[in-house]
Design brief:
6-stranded mixed β-sheet, alpha/beta, globular
Length: about 450
């Protein structure tokens, strides 16, 4: 087993980590939703209408360009609402669960790609380049699986896996038959994953060591003209379960973390559950909290009335920006202030001590200054500052030369946190990838 040691990056230690790994059951959800924006690269075309019954695992919509790509319902129930936004964009498909155990069974003896497409698990994978749902019919050069999450307050994926660990080997076997190369699984030091059909690599270092893009870049980098798939170990186990039982399990274990949570815990729920069933009565002050479905770096801001977003395993609740008149604002010399760059005295107590952070940006957008900030947070063979400038200027040739095919927005999330220019790096990268994909189509 190879070991890769990463020095670049940074671990952000926030208040509100889980100290008790006991899993508790969430309340039964009153509604479950699928949000099409979670599956980038798909243009939805509805297959179900409001008021129609849908079984768990039955398609709700398919992709306009590739009809074989299906997005399915996590539960059995009735399509309560197809909520639309501007220009009839589908914001959410809301389902009222009926409590029945009506679940679709798949014929697992057919072509593996078709089974994954019909089951809805296909959309849980990502393709590089472009960080989109994979295009059917293209065999990837390699498949990269991450077995751990290194983001702030991230759940332990071994706990999220639970008994589904038994399906990892089957999932690896399926994916190894769908690639021309190998399946690579990245684990953290001390983690034990048994997968004879995969090459297991140990990654030692700070966040973003758990990102599949970082692991791929330090194992077998993605070059122009190549396609790879990236997934997490939980999705790999779901694939193994599908090809063992013929059914897709939509249960999930969610880490409810953050400073505003009374008792951070692991909660068992359903993919896409309404947040009230998970969070009601568990926050210290719901009116002064920012709820994030995911981690603080890459997650989506949501309201209590909304739903758990993909990848369905993490909720973070931090203080909202409730101190607009703080003395000296972002320039305060409060000793409790945190800074990567030792601007404040907090570093004297050690950067591994959990700190309190709220939702404020603490500064305004300004020009990029060549300080090497991006490169220090990006353990990839990429010049981050030059790549961002190339994307902003729309220089496609420069983007290709600087390695845009290797990256995804999440790879720049930590650099965005550390950026003194306060640029929305993830948005910039996403727009750059979309523009490049449109040009190459």
């Amino acid at each position: 087993m190879a070991t890769v040691r990463l020095k670049k990056g940074f671990d952000i230690h926030l208040l509100g980590a889980i100290t008790d790994n006991t899993i508790v059951d969430a309340a039964s959800p009153t509604s479950v939703a699928v949000v099409p924006d979670d599956f980038h690269g798909i243009i939805p075309r509805m297959e179900k209408k409001e008021g129609e019954h849908v079984a768990a695992g039955e398609p709700l919509y398919h992709d306009k360009n590739y009809e074989a790509i299906k997005v399915v319902s996590p539960v059995s129930g009735t399509v309560k609402e197809v909520r639309r936004g501007e220009r009839r964009h589908i914001d959410a498909i809301i389902i009222a669960p009926d409590g029945d155990n009506d679940i679709v069974t798949h014929n697992i003896m057919g072509d593996a790609e078709q089974v994954l497409l019909q089951s809805g698990l296909w959309v849980m994978m990502r393709q590089r380049p472009y960080d989109v749902v994979p295009v059917p019919g293209i065999r990837p050069k390699n498949v990269f699986v991450t077995a751990f999450d290194s983001a702030p307050l991230a759940p332990d994926l071994d706990i999220v896996l639970g008994e589904k660990r038994q399906y990892i080997q089957k999932g690896t076997e399926v994916l190894s038959g769908m690639t021309d190369g190998r399946v690579y699984i990245g684990i953290r030091d001390g983690q034990d994953i048994v997968a004879p059909n995969a090459e297991v690599t140990t990654f030692v270092g700070p966040h973003p060591a758990g990102n599949t893009g970082v692991q791929a870049a330090n194992t077998v980098p993605v070059n122009k003209g190549e396609t790879v798939w990236t997934i997490d170990i939980v999705t790999l186990a779901r694939i193994g379960e599908l090809f063992t039982t013929g059914k897709v399990s939509h249960d999930t274990v969610v880490a409810v973390t953050g400073e505003m949570v009374q008792q951070p815990r692991y909660v068992k729920s359903i993919m896409g559950s309404d947040l009230e069933s998970i969070l009601k009565g568990k926050l210290t002050d719901a009116n002064c909290s920012r709820i994030i479905s995911g981690n603080v770096l890459t997650g989506s801001q949501v309201e209590m009335s909304q739903w758990l977003r993909s990848p369905y395993r993490h909720i973070t609740v931090i203080p909202e920006n409730n101190k607009p008149d703080e003395f000296m604002g972002w320039a305060s010399i409060n000793p409790k202030r945190f800074s990567i760059y030792r601007t404040f005295t907090t570093w004297l107590c050690g950067l591994k001590k959990p700190v309190s952070m709220d939702s404020r940006i603490k500064g305004g957008e300004r020009a990029i200054v060549r300080t090497g900030e991006y490169d220090a947070m990006l353990p990839m063979d990429i010049y981050g500052e030059f790549l961002i400038k190339a994307i902003i200027s729309g220089d496609i040739d420069k983007m290709e030369q600087l390695g845009i095919y290797e990256i995804a927005p999440e790879d720049f999330a930590l650099a965005e946190f550390a950026d003194t220019s306060k640029l929305e790096l993830q948005r910039i990268v996403r727009e750059g990838l979309d523009k490049l994909r449109a040009e190459m189509s």
